[in-house]
Amino acid sequence: MSTMDLAAPRSPLAAPRRKGPNLEKWGWIYMRVSGVLLVFLIFGHLFFNLFLGDGIKGIDWGFVAGKLANPWWQWWDVVMLWLALIHGANGMRTIVNDYVTHSGTRRVLVWALWLAAGFLIVLGTLVVFAFDPCNGVTTDSVFWEQCQNLPAPRL
Protein backbone atom coordinates (compact mmCIF):
# COMPACT_ATOMS: atom_id res chain seq x y z
CA MET A 1 0.00 0.00 0.00
CA SER A 2 1.25 3.39 -0.82
CA THR A 3 0.59 6.41 1.29
CA MET A 4 -0.94 9.31 -0.39
CA ASP A 5 -0.39 12.83 0.77
CA LEU A 6 -3.57 14.80 1.12
CA ALA A 7 -3.56 18.48 0.50
CA ALA A 8 -4.63 20.68 3.37
CA PRO A 9 -8.34 21.40 3.16
CA ARG A 10 -9.24 24.74 1.75
CA SER A 11 -10.59 27.01 4.44
CA PRO A 12 -11.23 30.71 4.36
CA LEU A 13 -8.86 32.89 6.25
CA ALA A 14 -10.30 33.51 9.65
CA ALA A 15 -10.80 37.16 10.49
CA PRO A 16 -8.93 38.31 13.56
CA ARG A 17 -11.03 38.31 16.71
CA ARG A 18 -12.52 41.71 17.36
CA LYS A 19 -12.50 43.16 20.82
CA GLY A 20 -15.79 43.73 22.57
CA PRO A 21 -18.96 41.65 22.82
CA ASN A 22 -19.63 38.87 20.35
CA LEU A 23 -22.88 40.22 18.88
CA GLU A 24 -23.50 37.15 16.74
CA LYS A 25 -23.37 34.91 19.82
CA TRP A 26 -25.71 37.17 21.76
CA GLY A 27 -28.07 37.37 18.77
CA TRP A 28 -28.11 33.58 18.62
CA ILE A 29 -28.86 33.33 22.35
CA TYR A 30 -31.56 36.01 22.05
CA MET A 31 -33.30 34.05 19.29
CA ARG A 32 -33.51 30.94 21.46
CA VAL A 33 -34.64 32.70 24.64
CA SER A 34 -37.12 35.01 22.92
CA GLY A 35 -38.53 32.08 20.93
CA VAL A 36 -39.34 30.17 24.11
CA LEU A 37 -40.82 33.27 25.76
CA LEU A 38 -42.86 34.08 22.65
CA VAL A 39 -44.38 30.59 22.60
CA PHE A 40 -45.51 31.11 26.20
CA LEU A 41 -46.78 34.66 25.56
CA ILE A 42 -48.58 33.87 22.31
CA PHE A 43 -50.31 30.74 23.58
CA GLY A 44 -51.24 32.59 26.77
CA HIS A 45 -52.63 35.43 24.66
CA LEU A 46 -54.67 32.99 22.56
CA PHE A 47 -55.87 31.05 25.60
CA PHE A 48 -57.11 34.11 27.49
CA ASN A 49 -58.65 35.73 24.41
CA LEU A 50 -60.26 32.72 22.75
CA PHE A 51 -60.79 29.90 25.24
CA LEU A 52 -61.88 31.87 28.28
CA GLY A 53 -65.07 33.85 27.97
CA ASP A 54 -67.11 33.86 24.76
CA GLY A 55 -64.37 32.86 22.33
CA ILE A 56 -64.02 34.62 19.02
CA LYS A 57 -67.56 36.00 19.21
CA GLY A 58 -66.65 37.90 22.37
CA ILE A 59 -63.77 39.84 20.83
CA ASP A 60 -65.00 43.27 19.87
CA TRP A 61 -64.13 46.91 20.50
CA GLY A 62 -65.29 46.71 24.10
CA PHE A 63 -63.22 43.60 24.79
CA VAL A 64 -60.07 45.22 23.40
CA ALA A 65 -60.77 48.49 25.24
CA GLY A 66 -61.28 46.64 28.52
CA LYS A 67 -58.16 44.57 28.00
CA LEU A 68 -55.99 47.58 27.17
CA ALA A 69 -57.29 49.40 30.25
CA ASN A 70 -55.66 46.76 32.47
CA PRO A 71 -51.91 47.36 33.13
CA TRP A 72 -51.24 43.60 33.30
CA TRP A 73 -52.47 43.10 29.74
CA GLN A 74 -50.77 46.28 28.53
CA TRP A 75 -47.40 44.94 29.68
CA TRP A 76 -48.17 41.43 28.37
CA ASP A 77 -48.91 42.85 24.92
CA VAL A 78 -45.93 45.23 24.95
CA VAL A 79 -43.48 42.49 25.96
CA MET A 80 -44.94 40.23 23.25
CA LEU A 81 -44.68 43.06 20.70
CA TRP A 82 -41.08 43.95 21.58
CA LEU A 83 -39.88 40.33 21.65
CA ALA A 84 -41.63 39.46 18.37
CA LEU A 85 -40.38 42.50 16.46
CA ILE A 86 -36.78 42.18 17.64
CA HIS A 87 -36.90 38.41 17.05
CA GLY A 88 -38.22 38.92 13.52
CA ALA A 89 -35.78 41.72 12.68
CA ASN A 90 -32.86 39.65 13.96
CA GLY A 91 -34.00 36.68 11.87
CA MET A 92 -34.27 38.88 8.78
CA ARG A 93 -30.82 40.33 9.54
CA THR A 94 -29.43 36.80 9.57
CA ILE A 95 -31.05 36.06 6.20
CA VAL A 96 -29.70 39.31 4.72
CA ASN A 97 -26.21 38.52 6.03
CA ASP A 98 -26.38 35.02 4.53
CA TYR A 99 -27.67 35.91 1.06
CA VAL A 100 -26.66 39.49 0.23
CA THR A 101 -23.09 39.53 -0.98
CA HIS A 102 -22.51 43.23 -1.63
CA SER A 103 -21.46 44.85 1.66
CA GLY A 104 -23.04 48.24 0.89
CA THR A 105 -26.40 46.68 0.02
CA ARG A 106 -26.20 44.46 3.08
CA ARG A 107 -25.51 47.45 5.33
CA VAL A 108 -28.44 49.43 3.87
CA LEU A 109 -30.84 46.50 4.26
CA VAL A 110 -29.79 45.78 7.84
CA TRP A 111 -30.19 49.46 8.76
CA ALA A 112 -33.62 49.51 7.07
CA LEU A 113 -34.65 46.41 9.05
CA TRP A 114 -33.66 47.91 12.39
CA LEU A 115 -35.23 51.29 11.56
CA ALA A 116 -38.51 49.61 10.57
CA ALA A 117 -38.48 47.43 13.70
CA GLY A 118 -37.69 50.45 15.90
CA PHE A 119 -40.49 52.48 14.30
CA LEU A 120 -43.01 49.67 14.80
CA ILE A 121 -41.89 49.15 18.40
CA VAL A 122 -42.36 52.84 19.21
CA LEU A 123 -45.70 53.02 17.38
CA GLY A 124 -47.02 49.80 18.95
CA THR A 125 -45.95 50.85 22.44
CA LEU A 126 -47.70 54.19 22.01
CA VAL A 127 -50.86 52.46 20.82
CA VAL A 128 -50.92 50.14 23.84
CA PHE A 129 -50.17 52.74 26.52
CA ALA A 130 -51.95 55.77 25.05
CA PHE A 131 -55.06 53.89 23.91
CA ASP A 132 -58.22 55.82 24.77
CA PRO A 133 -61.43 54.01 23.77
CA CYS A 134 -63.47 57.15 24.34
CA ASN A 135 -61.49 59.43 22.06
CA GLY A 136 -63.97 60.99 19.63
CA VAL A 137 -67.09 59.50 21.25
CA THR A 138 -70.03 61.91 21.01
CA THR A 139 -73.41 61.98 22.77
CA ASP A 140 -75.10 60.10 19.93
CA SER A 141 -72.63 57.19 20.09
CA VAL A 142 -73.51 53.79 21.57
CA PHE A 143 -70.39 54.10 23.76
CA TRP A 144 -71.37 57.43 25.35
CA GLU A 145 -72.74 55.98 28.61
CA GLN A 146 -69.82 53.56 29.02
CA CYS A 147 -67.29 56.34 28.47
CA GLN A 148 -68.87 58.54 31.12
CA ASN A 149 -68.07 55.93 33.77
CA LEU A 150 -64.43 55.37 32.78
CA PRO A 151 -61.56 57.12 34.55
CA ALA A 152 -59.53 59.65 32.61
CA PRO A 153 -56.78 58.06 30.47
CA ARG A 154 -53.19 58.10 31.72
CA LEU A 155 -50.54 59.44 29.37
UniProtKB/TrEMBL annotation:
UniProt cross-references to InterPro entries, sorted A to Z: SQR/QFR_C/D, SuccDH_FuR_B_TM-su
Gene Ontology CC annotations of this record: membrane
Source organism superkingdom: Bacteria
Single annotated GO MF: metal ion binding
Pfam families: Sdh_cyt
ATP-binding found in the keyword field: no
CDD domains: SQR_TypeA_SdhD_like (cd03500)
Chief location category: membrane
Alphabetical UniProt keywords: Heme, Iron, Membrane, Metal-binding, Transmembrane, Transmembrane helix
Subcellular location as annotated: Membrane
SUPFAM superfamilies hit by this protein: Fumarate reductase respiratory complex transmembrane subunits
Residues annotated as transmembrane: 27-52, 72-96, 108-131
Name this protein carries in UniProt: Succinate dehydrogenase subunit D
